[in-house]
């Protein structure tokens, strides 16, 4: 991860292997979408292929773009569209933004008139597995094999961070998704808040409990989280499990293997988190908070730690104090001598999935906009606007990074090859969010279930998915 200037080629290869990626993500919450097939009758004619127009974009054809208006906003996309308009001045660019991706776009897919490019993100994104299964997406290998905007001697695929292309595949070599952002997950905190307590980020769980106790005595909670969306908890809990028991524990969970959730590492991690509740270290009222409300409480100094992803710096910027010094920490060591992975082990992976529908009128235009977005100019614009890395391998040179993003870079450097990427949230979205998150972890952290009861319930949920022949299964290879 990071630019080639930050890490050597050997490190990048190691990091790609460390991700443990296989080519089968299935993103989305809802499974209904579209029928298969489609024809080319509604497509615009291709343009003339040239050095400046390698994808043969029709220079006068309209371009229809829909962006998820969430933590990253939509201005970065509008700016890239302006670059597209400058390159193809005869083209009309239609821009729309929504948080209701599936609700707004399913009728267009069903009617055979989808947009040309979609940022398919958010809680109401379309289910990727269904879109691929119904043959509703364009293979993006043409984009990946096109020359980079910045260096025509390089293919786009050769400019991306390790693992990004693989995440966009399912079972073959077709690439259906381009993950534009690059997310670092973990335990987020304020360096200023810890400094006021005369404390450092806790590298062991005993230190974590001690810091939380110190804060409690001053009327500050140790932790908060989005209680209404408790599937945020795994952003720090899953790499904690991997750290304790090794990445193979997470792989078995992803693979839906029998009794995977009964691994001792899972029990140890759950009991540690449950102790936060038992000792009164969770901010009062947290089970009723949304992600925005929990982030605001954290920004206000009501709690020290929050599990989140690197989009939080931009999403919470309106309430973040100027001297907050936002940072991300890797999971603390439960037992430094016995844990299978070292302190610094962290979860990082591609995020913000972009797709080009198969029935789009102007698929070449959709891919060309992505090619522009993956150039250094657009990538740096994204970084500056939303405090997040992109999938472009590099692009941070010459930039003064905000505190959270700078911390993300440092966390990736410290992790080295100890980067994990749990896939259950991609492959089995309903299982991860509704069942593991809301019906199990949320109940445990609210004190309504014990760790043993939570593990038994989650294992039953996983067994149910494994036995359901209507759900396509994926495995690490």
UniProtKB/TrEMBL annotation:
<keyword id="KW-0732">Signal</keyword>
<dbReference type="InterPro" id="IPR006059">
    <property type="entry name" value="SBP"/>
</dbReference>
<dbReference type="InterPro" id="IPR006311">
    <property type="entry name" value="TAT_signal"/>
</dbReference>
<dbReference type="InterPro" id="IPR022386">
    <property type="entry name" value="Chitin_NgcE"/>
</dbReference>
<comment type="similarity">
    <text>Belongs to the bacterial solute-binding protein 1 family.</text>
</comment>
<protein>
    <submittedName>
        <fullName>N-acetylglucosamine/diacetylchitobiose ABC transporter substrate-binding protein</fullName>
    </submittedName>
</protein>
<dbReference type="InterPro" id="IPR050490">
    <property type="entry name" value="Bact_solute-bd_prot1"/>
</dbReference>
<dbReference type="Pfam" id="PF13416">
    <property type="entry name" value="SBP_bac_8"/>
</dbReference>
<keyword id="KW-0813">Transport</keyword>
């Amino acid at each position: 991860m990071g630019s080639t200037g930050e890490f050597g080629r050997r490190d990048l290869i190691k990091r790609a292997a460390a991700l443990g990626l296989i080519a089968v993500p299935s993103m989305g919450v809802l499974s209904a979408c579209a029928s298969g097939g489609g024809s080319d009758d509604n497509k615009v004619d291709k343009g003339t292929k040239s050095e400046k127009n390698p994808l043969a974009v029709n220079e006068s054809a309209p371009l229809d773009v829909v962006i998820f208006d969430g933590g990253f906003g939509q201005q970065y996309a509008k700016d890239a569209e302006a670059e597209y308009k400058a390159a193809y001045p005869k083209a009309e660019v239609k821009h729309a933004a929504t948080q209701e991706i599936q609700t707004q776009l399913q009728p267009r897919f069903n009617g055979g008139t989808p947009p040309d490019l979609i940022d398919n993100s958010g809680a109401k994104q379309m289910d990727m597995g269904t879109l691929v299964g119904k043959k509703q997406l364009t293979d993006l290998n043409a984009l990946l094999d096109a020359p980079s905007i910045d260096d025509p001697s390089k293919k786009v695929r050769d400019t991306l961070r390790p693992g990004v292309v693989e995440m966009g595949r399912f079972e073959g070599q077709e690439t259906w998704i381009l993950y534009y952002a690059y997310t670092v997950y973990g335990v987020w905190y304020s360096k200023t808040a810890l400094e006021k307590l005369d404390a450092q980020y806790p590298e062991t769980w005993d230190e974590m409990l001690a810091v939380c106790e110190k804060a409690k005595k001053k009327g500050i909670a140790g932790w908060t989280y989005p209680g209404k969306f408790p599937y945020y908890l795994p952003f720090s809990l899953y790499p904690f499990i991997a750290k304790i028991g090794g990445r193979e524990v997470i792989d078995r969970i992803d693979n839906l293997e029998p009794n995977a959730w009964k691994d001792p590492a899972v029990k140890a991690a759950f009991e540690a988190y449950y102790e936060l509740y038992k000792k009164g270290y969770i901010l009062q009222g947290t089970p009723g908070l949304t992600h925005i409300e929990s982030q605001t409480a954290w920004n206000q100094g009501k709690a020290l730690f929050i599990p989140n992803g690197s989009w939080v710096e931009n999403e919470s910027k309106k309430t973040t104090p100027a001297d907050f010094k936002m940072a991300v920490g890797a999971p603390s060591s439960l037992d430094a001598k016995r844990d299978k992975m070292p302190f610094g082990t962290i979860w990082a992976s591609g995020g913000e999935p972009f797709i080009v529908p198969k029935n789009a009128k102007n698929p070449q235009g959709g891919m060309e906009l992505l090619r522009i977005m993956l150039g250094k100019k657009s990538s740096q614009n994204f970084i500056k606007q939303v405090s997040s890395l992109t999938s472009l391998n590099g692009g941070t040179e010459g930039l003064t990074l905000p505190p959270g993003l700078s911390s993300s870079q440092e966390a990736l450097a410290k992790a080295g090859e100890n980067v994990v990427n749990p896939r259950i949230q991609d492959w089995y979205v309903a299982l991860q969010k509704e069942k593991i998150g809301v019906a199990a972890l949320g109940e445990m952290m609210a004190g309504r279930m014990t760790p043993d009861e939570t593990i038994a319930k989650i294992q039953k949920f996983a067994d149910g998915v494994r036995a359901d022949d209507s759900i396509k299964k994926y495995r690490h290879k």
